[in-house]
Structure formats: structure tokens, C-alpha cells
Amino acid sequence: MKRRWLFWLMVIAFLGLLVSRLNQAEKLAQTLAQGQGGWILLAALLQVTYYVLNSALYQSAFATVEVESHTGELLPVMFATVFVNTLVPGGGAALFVDDATRRGQSAARATAGTLLSLVAEFSTFLLILVVGLGYLFVQRDLKPYEIAAALVLLVGTAGLSEVLLLGLWRPERLRALLAWIQRTTATIAGRLRQTTPFGTDWADRTTSEFVEAGLAIVAHPARLARTLAVALLAHLVDVACLYSLFVAFRQPVGMGVLIAGYAMGVLFWLVAITPQGIGVVEGVMVLVYASLGVPTAQATVIALAYRGLGYWLPMAIGFVLLRRVRSFGAQERSRSEIWSLHAAALFTAAAGVLNVLSALTPSVGSRFRLLERFLPVEARHGARLAAALAGFALLMLARGLWRRKRVAWYLTIGVLAVSAASHLVKGLDYEEALLVSALLVWLWVQRAEYHARSDAASVWQGAKALLSATAFTMAYGVAGFYLLDRHFAVSFGLGAALKQTVIMFTQFYDPGLQPVTSLGRYFAGSIYAVGAVALSYGLVMLFRPVLVRQPASPEERERAKAVVEAHGRSSLARFTLLGDKAYYFSPGGSVVAYVLKGRIALALGDPIGPGTDARSAISGFRDRCARNDWQAAFYQTLPSLLPDYRAEGMDVLSVGQEAIVRLEGFELVGHDNKGLRSAVNRLTKLGYRSEMHDPPLPERLLSELRIISDEWLGLVQGAEKRFSLGWFEDDYIRGSRVMVVHDPNGLPIAFANVISEYQLNETSVDLMRHRRQVEHGVMEFLFVALFEWARKSGYTTFNLGLSALAGVGERSEDAALEHAMHYIYQHVDQFYDFQGLHQFKAKFHPEWSPRYLVYPGAASLPAVAIALIRADSGDGFVRSYARSVLEARAPVPLRD
Fold first, then answer.
1. Residue 648 scores a pLDDT above 90
2. What is the pTM of this model?
3. CA angle 313, 316, 320 (to 5 degrees)
């Protein structure tokens, strides 16, 4: 709650800052309007890229001191840091430490990582600063205050480095310093009658963590080098941003002048006494550039634009992302939902559109004439075609990036590189080349997030299809041009036919090709059709989700059986061991049984395992699904784990209630049980009897039960259901305990197999089937016999299974979707007799326990529903539809 209040205080402070500096914002807008729009946009994108690289810098620094993090997670913190530093100078760095702590990482190590990132940033900037100072010295324009500021930064960087490595060089001094801080804090807290925020062992523990962080830095020089490289790259991107503004305002600038002004601006940004160097940086940059020959008016405009973009743009983004930072009360989000990945996919699609438009528009005249001197016309035309094809490919790849496909990431990186080169070759379009290069850098920084695999067999199949189609198209084209040359204005030999096919297949047009008949025109078009179909098929196969070709190995089934027998506590536990299930095993000893339908990994019930491992099993299963390009859903979950599912960002939908009969209180006496009592007494007097058979069942009985099952399936004109139910299979039924009802002649006419719920003192049934013609009340007779047997066997409760849609949407506070399902339950009975089934179970006066469908979000619900139908019906949609219509008019049993 305190952090929520802190967030709203930040909002108020931002609004106050915005009002107080509204004039500055207006001047910035007027200034930017004077420049070339394309270059201004490029400068803004480079400024955003600069902060993306700074996020990567923190990630690399954290990795060096062995703190787990991801660039996508740190990006909102990075922008929020800029926003906080504007309001509270120097307070932004604490956000990185707090964020890492809230992710379960060591606060001391996170502090060391934050210090390391600052040291890397300052150290690499010092290299650029030396270049800038050297240029000013050569131009005899170096001022004493510039040297003094540089010395301040050098001393500060050395001090930070010493603090960072104090635990490694002088651990006893660090421990003494931390102990003094701990004592002082405890004294102040005592006087204020507050508890101290530090534990009694805080100083020792923090010292130990700092020592280990220092050792990690020394032990991993490659990680340290990577951190320094990312810091230097970020500075170079910032220099490119400043250069873009020079071009935008039509001001030529040499590299020495550019670096000198940049170095002085950033230097006084870092050491100035005003927040973010406001007022000081702009003045220093104008003075430096004016002294080096840049017109004062142009230097002022460029400095204001650079500072405006560097101040207002990241601060505005930081304000927007403030709610995504854990320090201000944001909930931890799943990595498969990081917004930056979706943004990258959208920018990739936008880059595809940009490529196509650029390929269709003429190049700038002066640039084109320059290229004519160095490149042949074929290269320029080929580059234009490459840009168009790259644009089409980027549009196709954007969806794969949205789904975190690793293959799509690899292909996009390659296509962007080709795209950047093609923009330069076709017309020196360096604006487009810089934009796609910035997108390439962004995707490279996010590379760890693209972990969704494609199906290996499908990828190989797609690659073979592409190669085969290419070979076939070449052979088809050569043979066609050679044999049908009379249908064209040109006579083709084998060599000419091969050349013509290559031209058409790679460039998609040839002005010299002149078909003279309709057959010639048809043949030329057919080459394009074959190539397009092959390309589309190959891309589909490349991005196909991982398929489950064999649900589970024998070893996995034995492992799942052991877990279920040790921890199973639901009516669904037995069905998780049936042959259609695949398994995910969590490190904490839980198992999730699921089937894969399309991209939906549909789990049956909750994870089965130790209660303390439930949240971890849910999270782990979702991570596995994300890696395989699946979406996780859970069917018929219990109410107890709903908070864990919601904490993982999943939505919940009620799907019905399970009917649970308490055996101790079940009796046939009384007015309420008059109907049951009459049916049981009547069938008993007629000579009907029930008998429980223990496994293994004899073959003769198994054959009779199969006859009953076949008659039942013929009665409903349907097939076996699966997933949340069992099906008649000899081994399954032979190994089950079965209650059989015999008619007066001793002939079996109905049965139900009893299933175990393992650790729960409850039993249930699966298949309940009867012959075509049976006496009314046989099913009631069967269940009363089951209740009596279960009570004598020591069971406490008897589960009658799910009553679909019962109780859904009856409360005013239920979701709109549940109200719609309630309408279906009340008014639609041509597909399934929902109310009839519910009323049958209600005869036994059960307790009702709600069951839920847990799914990734509203957009996935249709796919989840289709996956559930496919899992239940064995992918037989038409058969399932016909069966559902007939079941509404048949005496349907409880579960099957």
C-alpha cells in the first residue's frame, strides 16, 4: 500500500514538473519542427535505443556479479530511473537494487552490479572524453573549468571502483563501515520508536555478498569485457543521435567537432549541480560548438533538440512505465507477456512496410548519380528487389516474433542485415538503413527472450520442401522454356532456358520475356505460383509449434504413476494416468498431465504433488509451454489454487460443479428419497441384483461388459470420450473394480467401474453404461448399490462427477461470460441435456464443489474451447456434433 501511495506521489510530482516546464516543452516542439522529420525520427529512435542498451548494460553487469536478470525486465526500470532522477537526483539507481531484491536476488550483489554498471558507463565515457579534450587542446580551445570537471569525474569513477572492490581488497574496512551504518540506523530508529530495517547479521551477510561479488568480477573477465563493450556501444549510439540532429538541421560537422561537443555536454550532465544538468549542459554545448566554428544559431538549436530528446522523451516513457516497476507496487509479470517483445514484433512489421514502400519509390537524384559511378545497374535493381522481398519476409516474420519463435528471431536478424545493405546499395537510403539497423540492435539485445522452439521434424520437412520446390521449379522452368519456345518471341536453347528460369525465379519479372500465346502467358505465371506456394509452405513449417508425437515414454508413465499414487487427491487423478496424456515434471516433485491440441497444452486438473510446490509447478509448466510455442490451460481445477493461477496472470472461468455425496448421511428413508426408494424396492422385488467384481476381471465377464458398452455406444450413435474420462479398453476395464447390475435372469445389463482417488478417502466412477432396453430406474439402482458398497468399504464420500455449467453465472457478481453460459444452461438443450444430468445427480442430495477452466487470457479462449472439444472427442468434430445432438434425447449416464 505504501508503494502505491509513493506511485501517486510520483504522478503528482510529474504533473507539477510538466506544468512548471510547459514553456520548455513548447520550445522543444517548435525547435524540432524546424528540422527534417525523418532525421528527427531517427534521432528519437536512437535515443530510445541508447536506453535499451543501458538496460543491457545493467543486465550484463548483474550477470557479472551473478545476479539473474533479463533486459526486457530491466527496460521499464531503466526508463523509470530517468523519471525518478528528474524528481529525486541520484535516487534512480536504488530502483535497480529494489527491483532485483523483489525478484528474489541478493540486495548486496544487486548493489555491486549497479555500481559496476556505473563504473563501466563512466570508464568508457572517459575514453570518449579524452578524445574530446584532445581535440579541444589541439584547437587551442580547452578551458580550465573543462579540465576541472574531467578531473572530478575521474576521481568519482575511481571512488566508485574502490567501493565496488572494497570487499575484495579490504573486507575488514567494509565490515566496519557497514556495522557503523547498522548501529547508527538502529539508534535513530529506536529514538523514533520504529523497528530497524536491518537484521542483526546484516553487516556480516552484506560484507560476505560484496566479497563474493568482487570475486565473481575477477573470476569472469569475459563478462566484464562484455559489460564495458555494451557501455561503449551505448555511448556511440548517443553520438549517432547527436549526429542525426546535425543532419536534420542541415549543419555539416566534422567528427572531431561532434565528439568534442558531445563529450563536454555529457561531462557537465554528469557533474553539474543542477538536476540532470538542466541549463548547464545546453550552455556548455553551445559554447563549445560556437568556438569550433558552428554558427551560434545552429549550435543553439541542435543543443536544445539533443537535450530535449534526451530529457523529455525518456522521462515521458519512464512515467508511462512506472506502473510496471515492482518498486511501485507492480505485480510480477510473466516473461511471455513482456510488452517490449510485442513492440519489437510490431516494429518489425512496420519495417517490412517501410521496405516495400522504399523499394517502390525512386531514390534521391544526387545519391543515385553517385551510385551509378560505382555499381552496375544489375546490382541496383537486385538490391531494390531484395528490399521488397525483405519487406515481405519481415511482415511474415513479425507473427513469429510475437510468439517468441527462436527460428523467427534468427531469420529476422538475417533479413534485417540484408535489408540494411540493400537500402544502401539501391540508392544510398541511409535513413532506412539506420532504422532497420536500430531494430536489429533492439532484437539482438532481446535475444534471450526468443526461446520458443519450432517442431524440429517440421522444420526439416519445411527445409526439404523448399529445396525440393526450388529444384522442381528450376527443372519445370527449363523444360517448359525449352519445349514451349514457340509460344515466346525468343527461341530458347537449354542454356537460355536455364538463364531465363533463374532470372524469373530470383527477380520475379523480366522485361525481355514476351509470350505470344495464352499458353506462354500461363506457363510464365505458373513459375511464380510454384515459388510462392513453396515459400509459404516452408515458412508455415518453420514456425510450427513443437508437436507431441508420443505422449509419454514408459519411464515417464511409471514416474507419473508414483507421483499420482503418493499425492493424488481428486476425482481426476486416475485419468491423468491414461494413455493419451503427456507429462511435465516439476523440480519440486509435482506432475502435470496434459494433451496438446494445436498450440494449446491442456492440463487435466491441478498439478499433482506436494502442496508447497503447486505455484512452482504451474509456473514451470507455463515456461515449458512458452519454450515450445504452446499456451497453457488447466481444465477442472479446484478452488484452492485459484490465487496461484491468478498470480501467474491467468484468467479463471467456472465450468460447473462436482456432485459429492457424504455417505454417512445418505439414507433411502424420508420424503425426499421417496423416488429413489421406490425404484430400488421395485427392482429388488423383480429380482434385479448388483454385484461388485474385483480385478482382474475374468475374460467372460469382460466380454459381456464389452457387449453392454457397444450397445450403449450404438444407442447414442457416438464414439468414446477421452481426456477427462476413461474409455472401454480391455486392459483398463480388466484392471478396474466394477459394479454390475444383473436382471432377473442373471444377465448383466448395466455396469460402472470404480476408480481410486488415492490419498483422498473418496471414490468415484468412470464408465456407466447399460443395454439398449432396460427397466426404468436401473441407473438409480446401480448408484444406490455403489453408495452402500463404498460406505461398507470405509469411504467418506462418493464423487458423482462434473455437472457441466451447473451454478455458473447465477450470482450478480459473476463475469459476463459466465452469465452467457448460464443462459445456455437454461435455454439450450438440443446439444446436451445439462439440466437433466444435474437433476439426476441432485436426486442423491450431494454437496456441490465448483470446478474451473484456467486459461491465458480472453484472446486464447476460443482456441482453448476448440482444444477441449478435440481432446474430449478425439478430434472428431462432426462425430462429436452428431453425438451431442443425439445424447440430448437419450438416457445419458452421468459421466459417459
1. no
2. 0.54
3. 135
